[in-house]
Amino acid sequence: MSLKQRYVLRFTRLNRILHILMIISFITLSLTGMTLKFSYTVWARFLSRLFGGFESAGYLHRFAATVMIIVFITHLVDLFRVKKKEFGSWLKMLSGKNSMLFNKKDWNDFKGSLKWFIGKGTRPEYGRWTYWEKFDYFAVFWGMFVIGSTGMTLWFPEFFTNFIPGWMINVATIIHSDEALLATGFIFTIHFFNTHLRPEKFPMDIVIFSGRVQLDEFRLDRPDEYNEMIGKGELEKNIVEQYPPIVLRGMKIFGWTALTIGFSIVIWIIYAMIFAYR
Amino acid sequence: MKKIFLLLFYIYLPLISAQTKEDCLMCHDDPDFKGKVGTKTVSLYVNGKTFSSSVHGTLNCIACHTNIDAENIPHREEYTKVDCGKCHDDIQKLYVECLHGKAHAKGDPLAPNCQDCHGNHDILPVKDHNSAVAPMKIPFLCGRCHREGTPVQLQRHIPEDRILENYTESIHGEALLLKGLVVAPTCISCHSAHRILPHTDPRSTISRNNIAATCTQCHAEIETVHRKIIRGELWEKQSHVLPACVDCHQPHEIRKVYYDYGMADRDCLSCHDNPNIKSSVDGRSLFVNYSELKSSRHENIACSQCHSEVNVSKHRPCETILHKVDCTSCHAEIGVQYAKSTHGTLHANNDINAPTCEECHGTHGILGKLNPQSKTFATNIPSLCAKCHREGEKAAVRYNGPEKDIIKHYTESIHGKGLIKSGLTVTATCTDCHTAHMELPHDNPESSINPNNIAETCGKCHHGIEEQFVKSIHSPLISKTDKELPGCADCHSAHTIKRTDAEGFKLSIMDQCGRCHRKIAETYFDTYHGKVSQLGYTKTAKCYDCHGAHDILPPTDPNSRLSRQNVVNTCKTCHPSANKQFAGYLTHATHHDPVKYPILFWVFWGMTGLLIGTFFIAGMHTLLWLPRSLQWRKKLKELNNEEEDSGNESEGKTE
Known about the structure:
The complex is a heterodimer. Chain A has 13 helices and three strands. Chain A is mainly α. Chain A has a three-stranded antiparallel β-sheet with strand order 2-1-3. The termini of chain A are far apart. In chain B, strands 1-2 form a two-stranded antiparallel sheet. The N and C termini of chain B lie far apart (169 Å). Chain B is mainly alpha-helical. The relative contact order of chain B is 0.03. In chain B, a hairpin with a 2-residue loop joins strand 1 (34-37) and strand 2 (40-43). At the A-B interface, helix 1, helix 2, helix 3, helix 5 and helix 6 of A face helix 33 and helix 36 of B.
């Protein structure tokens, strides 16, 4: 079997399911949320009608938020499980080679990348998690904290105003809305580009849905991880069968749908910011 | 003075003259005493007793019978009539001008002279009930000639008929003859005693211009009584258009009741009942559908009451009419309103487009506005006004104001639907707001739709709202300001008034508030409530949900919905568990104002900075990556191809 037909498992089933749920909830949140943020635009009115009015859009928004919180908590719980099962202690897990925490290699990779970008070096040998992937990962933590907490305040203002003054609701609105703008903008442009739309991955990398990456691509893209696997002789352990074409097709359709919605939102936002801002 | 002088002269005449009354009576007191006048033998008897008790009893005969040669018989060559004017020259002057006097001067044998009415030797003071000209006797005195069948009535031109009979039956005649009320007017009260002139003579007491003065000699306060329809002064000022007393209260037939049938209607109809009758001037039909008139609002009004200036003595009484019918003679108040109105001003300027009374009310078939057949019945008013005010019609073409498609909009408005679709006749029509007769542009302070008056106009029906509104900050009674205050129409519009519970209205009302409260409305749209409204939903707090609609008060007013005491309850109408801190939510907050809302301002810019910073770094990273990524794509492709080639080779080998 050539390398082309051999696949390495990159994402676990749970992580893939969580990411799909994340996509669905995130897109729902942005669509429903943006209708309010950009209520002065025609597309916002249209979308709001599409969701069956501001009230049902609101229900959807809070439902999606609940889903996302569950996704987030599930991931945290999974971290505990992985820690216990594979590492035994937090220290081992967080200081290991595949840790999500930033480490010295990330700093070197970052510098190496910049050198490579300006033609003063070769492509750094990225490991399992590159620094931009870690940035995306922690962006979710930051977003969950900032958007989640302000969102809860806006969800239950009558309750929260027992502890905070009324004007904090206004502050929460601004933070919630602007952080959401940052999140959607970042995900639908930078994240899309970095992980899906880079020319070498164009038009779509479905690894996040299938969890499988071609071995030769893996070898070139993540030489550090590949070498590590070879060194440890664990490569064969990670070799898996690709999904049948029908499943891959479904994943592609899902991916394209998400991308289309994401880009549409970006275009709508740009339109709103440039042509209709107030 | 002269009279007294003469009287004294005649009293003392016997002292200087031999010929005394007694001397004359020596012969003339004999009932059989006759003499010749010309060729006729006539009685020359004078009842001395009667004469002595007469008003002239102290005078000598020769005082009246001048040119007498007492010594000889006959006393004079030629008979000369007694000239009463020698003493009563002032009365004689009147008589000479009078119909009777003129006829007499012409030698008319039917013309009465002094003696015909007053008698000769038996003249008693007017105040004496036995006098021939005592009030009780006057009707019969005049009636000797002026009653049916007399030569005067038959041979002379007397416009009135059955004069004595009618008078006897009239309220005046009844008072005098049945009740013995000697102050009741007799013939001479209206026609004068000695200067009887035809009513066509402007000097006549019964001429059109003087009749009011004549009647008001007795009916002094009648103008007060008639003020409702004829403002007192108009009777004198506009006597040419106003009906005279006699137009309604037919002369000689004056009754306690208003006359059902104008006396002249029959005369008018003798021509105007002909359906083919046309004007000789412009050819328009002059046919009058009398049955239509009789079923109209003016069923009890005679032709001549409106078509005044008729002259019954003419063959065509209407030929003296110079003016058009003036409805204001009765409808004086309305006339004053109309004159002030735009319609009236245009009419006064001879504008051909100006509507007159006739245009809206019709002519002979005028019906009351409560009659569904009437042109001015509530449901007919919009189409009546539309005749001119519909888009493209003569009034709409001249109008430059902001209102467009007035009739169409009205029809679609809540009032129009109420009136036309639901048939609700109490619904506001054009005239309810604009008034029927004094419609004026809104910038006229007297206009019913002037911003200062509009609340009162709407309040005619929406009284409860008006009560609230006049106490609110928007009422001109409360806010003394140079700025324009909103009236009903500013929020509800004039002709496109919608149901206030309709989505469209609820949303548009915010724009209406925003027209004046621009800043505060803009900042409202920066908050959750505003954004939801902006999306087109009404189930969120809008201006009036918090501030009230007609009862808006400044938040500093303890009665305001937003006062310290009330604000939490106001929030509670939507947020049942709202608390005091919750009410501290800034409903008009904006992050664009660093002075008023510094925290929001800096939070916003902090967040925006974070956003810009993140995008700048990540964006730069991505852009720099792009060219390398393209290279990398090439490299991968090459590798792939090599692999494929080698793969194909190996596959070929195994086969």
